[in-house]
Design a protein that fits this description.
343 residues; alpha/beta; 11 helices; globular
Length: 343
Amino acid sequence: MSPSPSLEPHPASSSSSSSSLEMKIDPSRASHLLSQLAITKSRIRAANPSNRPVRLVAVSKLKPPSDILSLYQAPPPSSTTSTSTSTTSPPQIHFGENYLQELQSKSALLPHSIRWHFIGALQTNKCRPLAETVPGLWCVESVDTAKKADGLEKGRANLKKNGEKAKEKGDEEEEEGGEKKEEEEGKVELGPLRVCVQVNTSGEESKSGTAPGADTFALCKHILTTCPHLRLHGLMTIGAIARSQQKQQHPSSNPEEEEQGNEDFSTLKRVRDEVLRDLRGEGFLLEGDGEGQGLELSMGMSEDFETAVRQGSDEVRVGSGIFGERPKKGDEVVKGDVAGGGG
């Protein structure tokens, strides 16, 4: 029997340091979100007949923490399921945020085993605090300059150093006769921080990103050679949404044209292959070499993720397709939907 199509596997749910805070979760809202999540995953599987692992990042910017928790919490086992043999895992573990302060607030409130992706425009002066203050940060996907990579490197190094100091202090207190504190479930292990280089595949002035070609290669090489606390994870593009909308609304009757798909996605795939060729030519060994491509492709959003999956994307970022329309910036609720929390 062939394996059922699946998305990237994720670990079982764990508790948070904020477990004493009870979120106000609307059951009907939670049910709707889980339904939209299931529909999105079904569409990914339908666009992925080869059953490649495809990571879904639920873009939760400007949405309340209770929405995230509704998708992260594993549903309780049914009465017909043996609790001694059943294991449950969260429906969704990867979430994307665009704003530093919002990410800091949410990561402090929610389970530490959530894997956070920073996908927004990245200001150079925000890179160090981003990497330094969010232990659960799994990937930063919008790196487009060496200065930003250097800021993330410094922040991650400081976070790791502070964690080691805290561990040494705890060990000393234990030796002096103090009680050993239980390790928090889901505690994040601080390995290198994953980063994606953002590529401006459409050439639009309004878009951030490196130019395809030498600029992209130079930044990838910089990360590999000068940023030991970062891990070059892949390339990311946003692309021109008009191209994706046109593809969705007016699919070509020409099979060859339809197979070519979105020009931005084709460009990112080509750039990835060229970067890999040149890095390997200089002797670099990347994570995944020998098993996969060595560099992931992060491309595809709510309007075009199926096209992206068909063109080889390893990760899609879907927000409104799961959460619905977003409030205006400044109208979002972060702490206000936590029982007992202020704000």
